[in-house]
Structure formats: C-alpha cells, structure tokens
Amino acid sequence: MKVLVVGGGGREHAICWKLSLSTRVRQIFCAPGNGGTAKCDKTENIDIAAMDFDKLIAFAKDNAIDLVVIGPDNPLAEGIVDSMEAQGLRVFGPNKSQAKLEWSKAYAKEVLNQLNIATARFATANSQQTAEAIVKANQWARVVKADGLALGKGVFVCASEDDALQALNTIYKSGKFSDKKVVIEEMLSGEEISLLTLCDGKTLTPLLPSQDHKRRFDDDLGPNTGGMGAYAPVQLYEKHKEAIQSRVLEPLQKALAEGKLNFKGVLYIGLLMHHEKSSADKSSKNQPEPYVLEFNARFGDPETQTILPLLQSDLFDALYSCTDQTLDKQQLLWSKQSSCCVIGAAQGYPDSSSKGETITFPANESNDANEIIFQAGTKLLSTESGEQTVTDGGRIFAAVGLADNMAEARQRAYKLIATVNCQSLDYRRDIAKREATCQSK
Ligand code: AMP
Ligand code: GLY
After folding, report:
1. Deepest in the core among 333, 367, 369, 390, taking most CB within 10 A?
2. Is residue 293 lining ligand 1, measured as CB closer than 6 Å?
C-alpha cells in the first residue's frame, strides 16, 4: 500500500514512523515533511504545501495512493477531505463540516450541550461591545476564546475582569485574529487529559490517554503553546475511567450510532477533571468531574509522538478501517510501558521560531527502541560537505523515552535531549515529573 501523509510537524514524523513499521505499507510520501521524515524508513518528502490541495490531489492520483492521512487542522478546516474525496481518493480525516467541532469553538459547545456532556458554562458574542457586556455582567466569565483556529494562541485564561477585557481588546484590535465571534467561559480548575479517539462514522475507539503540558515554562507558567511535552499513560484517567466512559464516551458513541453526530478521523477530546472549589455538597468535594474543554478534529501534537510508540497494533490497518467503517473489527493493543515526550523548542517560542541553525541529533547506533527522536521544525539541506539538518520552526523536535515506569521514561527522554546539539534550544525540565512522583509513592 502507498500512503500520503499531509503535514510537516513532529506529529507527521511519528505517523510516518509508525506507518513504516507496518508490513502492509510499501511506500510513504510526506508533504511537505521535515528533516526527520526525509530520513524515515520507506518515506520520501514531497515538496507540496499542506494547503495546496490541487497539487496534492494530482500527486495522489498520479501515484495511485491508497490512503491519504491528513495531519494538521488548517487543511481540514478548509475542506481538503471534501476536495480529495470528490476526486475518488480514500482519506483519513473529517470533512469540513465534521471538522467544525474544532474550527468553531461555539459550535463545539452547542454540540456538547445538546449531548448533555459537561462543559464550562459559556456565552458567545459577535462584537467587542457585546463581549465586554458579558464579562462585566458575569463574574464567571473569565476565559476568553477566539472562535476559530488560532494555533492555541486564541485562548486567554484570565484572573480578573480587567484581564478579560484586555484579552477582548487583543482579539478585536491586535489584528492577529480574524474572528469576530468569541466564546466566553467560566474558568474550570483541575488536571487535563488528552483523550484521542479514532472514529469511522459509527464506532469510536479511544486511544491511550495522555497528558500534555501546554504552558511554555516549568511549573505551568507562561503563555499557552501548542504543547511542550506529554506523557502516557495517565493515572488520573485510570482513576476516573468509569465516569469518563459513562459521561463523555458513551454519549458520543450513542450520538454516532444514532446519526446525531457525524464524524470520521481522530476526535480529540480535551478533558479537564474539574474540582468544584466551594461545593455546598460536601459528599462530592473530592471527586473531580470530567468536563470537555474542547474538541480537535486531528491527532494532537505532541500527544501523537507520545502514544504511537506504545501502540503495538498496525496503525495503517486502524486508519484504513476508519475509511470503510470497519473500525469495530480492529482491536488496538498497547504496550504497558510508560512514555515521556519532551519538546525541544526555540528559545523564543511561541512568539518566535528558529531558522537555519545547525542541529545535530545522536546517531542511535545501538538502535535503542526506548529512545526516539521525532523531528518537527527542521529541514534537511544538501551542502557540499554532505547533508545537514537545520532548524525551521518553533517546536523543533520531540525526544521520547520509554521504560517500565515513568521515572525511568523521564530519565531516558532527558538523557536523550541532552545529546542534541543546537545552540538556541530550550525545553521544560518538568515534563511528567508529577506523574513520576505519584507513581513512586
Ligand atoms: P482550548 O484550546 O479550548 O483547549 O484551550 C487551551 C487551554 O486553555 C486548555 O488546554 C486549558 O489549559 C485552558 N482552558 C481553556 N478553557 C478553559 C476553561 N474554561 N477553564 C480553565 N482553563 C481553560
Ligand atoms: N497538544 C495540543 C494539540 O495538539 O492541540
């Protein structure tokens, strides 16, 4: 089988790597790919941008591609799947109207309410004036979100009314956001879990839950980013599995089966285990409840780099089954190991990125399957003295460590990242720290 993977981040490197381990996959093309996919087994980079639908379609048809896998959110929101399917291609990913669960936060909230799935209280507004009135009139209204896609930069979790008004000013006046619509939410507090699920239109199969670290700096300080690292499995999920199953997964599964929800691809459920701070009902005071913060309509980054190394089943079969409604026949098996994924980022990320700087990765001569680098913002250049990898983005790569427990997985990931040579590299030092500490108690 021949697969075309669209995208060029760490997520796409991880997808190509896992697909290359499938005996059913003969050849993989990654458009545009990165320095890592350029060197990945069975894989070749194709110089076509993820938004260039016409060229991607022509390439897929000319090369008799059996399956196209879409990585990033933008092409999905712009209808790449609709365009490709109209040309007879088999595509893993949601069409434009299905992807609305990600590209409109207001729509996702409506769906959650309709399905009776807990989500933060909210209101929407179509102008700064209305939004300001909502913030001023409601003490709960402190989280401000631009409605559309904003690479994680359109969400402002505010401590006060003034901060929320400031956030509205940024959305409406900075010129960085094209949205006129905003969603204003109540602030929830508790730990988050990224629960990615595969969907074929009627069946929903959860993948291994993971926890992302979204803030830029240690101890969850600094601005929100696309994700600075992640780990799996998550003990918190195991502890509340039944509640998550009955209050979130079952309603979604039922809605799919009854045709009230239409979705194919990865439905990424952003969960927050909310702790009611001043609950009058003392009997439930220590039980966090699962709330859905958001949906994404694609694989998460860096969740994908974190969980795919633990997947023992064939990724190609699983993705293909989502395109012909046979996901119910697939059983996904997971390793019992722990995975810790640390993102190596440019020092200025998320405000700026690094371009053209030389970066050297360890050779992994021993072929250690417990230490994996997935490249993201990198490019492979051909120079007179040979090939050279250079930086080309904000999040540059992921170092993944696998082991029998989280403490060792962390050690491996941090040992691995320390062997990467790149001058302006920065990374969080506390990925999975809390989980490793809890496990050892
Ligand atoms: P979203 O893109 O909607 O998931 O928001 C990005 C991040 O902002 C989430 O991962 C949370 O850390 C935070 N966040 C979003 N909504 C809320 C909320 N209602 N209460 C507290 N934190 C939130
Ligand atoms: N890591 C968060 C995301 O992929 O949206």
Report:
1. 390
2. yes
CA 183 to chain centre: 21
Pair (135, 168) in one structural domain: yes
Same domain for 352 and 325: no
Mean pLDDT for the stretch of residues 209-225: 94
- Cβ–Cβ < 8 Å for 276, 232: no
- Tell me the whole-structure pTM to 2 decimals: 0.95
Residue 246 DSSP one-character state? I
With CA atoms as reference, report the closest residue to 298 among 312, 279, 284, 319: 319
CA distance 171 to 180: 8
Q: Is the CB of 338 under 6 A from ligand 2?
A: no
- If one residue of 12, 212, 213, 431 were mutated to test the ligand 2 pocket, choosing by the most ligand atoms within 8 A of its CB, it would be 212
Closest ligand (CA of 301):
2
pLDDT digits (tens, 9 = 90+) for 72-117: 999 999 999 999 999 999 999 999 999 999 999 999 999 999 999 9
The rounded percent of the chain whose pLDDT value lies above 90 is: 88
Domain that holds residue 83: 2-92
Residues 44 and 148 in one domain: no
pLDDT digits (tens, 9 = 90+) for 337-350: 999 999 999 999 99
